[in-house]
């Protein structure tokens, strides 16, 4: 393995060190509402260091709402969000990023009139020092060489798959302990979707814990360690991903076939 990736692994190892068996993230009786409409009803889940945890369920079941609450975009109405032993529920989004959580949002939301370099730099807005920003950008380009080839290109001119790489790379620029991915294969061809999930496997192999929302259940479970099944704002099942793939009746019951 080259020196760049070794440097990254050492950094992540130091960040995620803690009590053996301690969760990176816990949600405890989490309730979230949009105005008067309740979206989450007492969600409980945990994410352990080094896992890829998938949230699956029908559209509107509360999966993306869970990620938005974790990342500080929504405030819980009740319950706790505990990250690395500290309650972060209700923190502003920039403070959540500073704690070590980054999100690649649904539909990517890159800045189309900015270059690839500029988009990545925005992901390191909490980072002090140009040299450190360049170091992190080098790590992203090591992982996504296609972005390096297009580093001066406007993000709006990239393909959908390239924009997804950029959105993930931008999130990695904060060197998160936990990466939240919301529908990373949305709108992509099957070939490009598989490439994106290969990136997820690689990122995880190099020490980043991942929480994943993905409508393509087979893709999600093929990369995940464990999965939580959502229905109407509640977690109704939790399984090892490999076992859930072998349980078509459960998947059919909650995902509609």
Largest sheet: 6 strands, mixed
User: Mean pLDDT across all residues, rounded?
Assistant: 88
| Largest sheet: spatial strand order | 6-7-8-3-9-10
Radius of gyration: 18 Å
Helix content: 40-55%
- How many alpha or pi helices? 11
Helix-strand pattern: HEEEHEEHEHHHHEHEHEEHH
Q: By helix and strand content, what is the structural category?
A: alpha/beta
Strand content: 15-25%
End-to-end distance, in Å?
42 Å
How many extended strands? 10
What best-fitting shape do the alpha-carbon axes yield?
globular
Give the uncertain stretches in residue-range form.
1-19
Walk me through the topology.
Layout: H1 3-16, E1 25-34, E2 37-47, E3 52-57, H2 63-70, E4 78-83, E5 86-87, H3 93-99, E6 101-104, H4 116-122, H5 130-143, H6 145-149, H7 160-172, E7 178-182, H8 190-205, E8 209-213, H9 217-223, E9 226-231, E10 234-240, H10 241-245, H11 248-255
Parallel strand pairs: 3-8, 3-9, 6-7, 7-8
Antiparallel strand pairs: 1-2, 1-4, 4-5, 9-10
Helix pairs in contact: 4-7
